[in-house]
Amino acid sequence: MAKLQAQFITFNDTIKMGTYEENATLKEKRDLLINELRNSLTDEKIPDTNKPLTFSKIDLGSYAMNTGVKPTSSDYDIDVGIIFNITNDEYDSNKLKKLVFDKLNKHHKRTVEFNKPCITVNYASGYHVDLAIYSKNNESHHIAWGKEHSIVNRKWWIADPKGLKQWVSNVATEAEHKKQFRRIARFLKKWKAKAFRDNGNNAPPSIGLTIQARKAFRYQEGSDLEALIAVVQSIKNSFNQTLDLDSGSQKSTIHIELPVQPYKNVYYKMTENQQDTFYNQVVNLLEAIEAARDEASEHECSKILRKVFGNDFPLVEDSKQTNTAPYVLTGTSA
User: Fold this and answer.
1) Residue of 141, 143, 162 lying closest to 65 (CA atoms)
2) Considering only CA atoms, which of 253, 272, 269 is closest in space to residue 117?
3) Domains of the chain by start residue, with CATH
4) Counting Cβ atoms within 10 Å, is residue 108 exposed (0-12), middle (13-18) or buried (19+)?
5) What is the per-residue pLDDT across 64-75, written as a single tens digit (0 to 9) for each?
């Protein structure tokens, strides 16, 4: 039975993105845009008042949670929350979001998009910043939700960005346990990047993988592989199996809610077919990592894991011949 713990640690160090504070480039890009927005709002007032329109920021996403991985391309995804010092009654959510959009949509070397959950600033140099707009609303934060020209669900929705970060951080109290959890989250994201590289539109959102890893994680001393297997088994078990009466085939769907307000389904964007593809990929992943665990040869074990994660996973030298038949990936992830 192989564990390859040293190789998992090396693999983590290779793919780890780190936090904003650990990455000077990401921190600089984030801060430049935040300072630009703050300066552009210097003369803005809250409607019908003389109160200045001010905000604070909160880091969001995988870099803020320290579960980020280096992207396979040059597209770095930076997530930031902009928390305005207003109540919901003081500013219409869509108008405030449009104000941020207009203030940032003035440069030729980038494009700005008005998306349902955020304002996205795309740079030609290969990174983008997602700005989620919040009202402080007397410490009960709400997010400006909805598309610019649609009135469907376009309003302030209660949210808890700080609570989500804290919930993920509270996965354990011991430092080594937290470190193993963050490694598991990174391994899942690296697997996702490879498994869905030919059709990224089918890919599950990373926050879903992080939440499910957080719920299922149990520390396994000296074995990231065993901890990963337990998490992937839990993800597989979270799918619902239904029979499609028209085709006679079985469909797999998944519904996982945010652990904090607004408690929405994190997989809400995925179609039933995409959820079914997600399930099949999870089944393939579980099959592969269980085969890796049961492999007697560390060389063959590392070969299996490289098929799962890519060549960033270290290859163990073949020190002796083995009669064990090599494992072959099946299904859509082959």
Assistant:
1) 162
2) 269
3) 15-159 (3.30.460.90), 173-333 (1.10.1410)
4) exposed
5) 999 999 887 767
Q: What is the DSSP letter of 181?
A: H
Q: pTM here?
A: 0.89
With H, G, I as helix, E, B as strand and everything else as coil, classify residue 108: coil
Please state, in angstroms and rounded to a whole number, the distance separating the CA atoms of residues 53 and 86.
8
Residues in the chain: 334
**Could you please report the per-residue DSSP string of 213-272?**
HHHH----TT-HHHHHHHHHHHHHHTSEEEE-TTT--EEEE---B-SSTT--BTTTT--H
Give dist(CA 274, CA 252) in Å, integer: 9
Residues 251/243, Cβ–Cβ less than 8 Å: yes
SS3 call for 205: coil
Identify each DSSP E strand in the chain by its residue range: 55-60, 76-84, 110-114, 119-123, 127-135, 142-145, 155-158, 240-243, 250-253
C-alpha 177/C-alpha 164 separation (Å) is 19
Distance in angstroms (rounded) separating the CA atoms of residues 292 and 279: 20
- State residue 136 phi and psi, 5-degree precision: -70, -40
pLDDT digits (tens, 9 = 90+) for 73-125: 767 889 999 999 999 999 999 999 999 999 999 887 899 999 999 999 998 87
Find the helix or strand (DSSP H, E) in which 101 lies. Answer: helix 93-104
Residues 241, 190: Cα–Cα separation, whole Å? 26
Burial state string for 138-157 with b = 16 or more CB within 10 A and e = fewer than 16: eeebbbbbbeeeeeeebebb
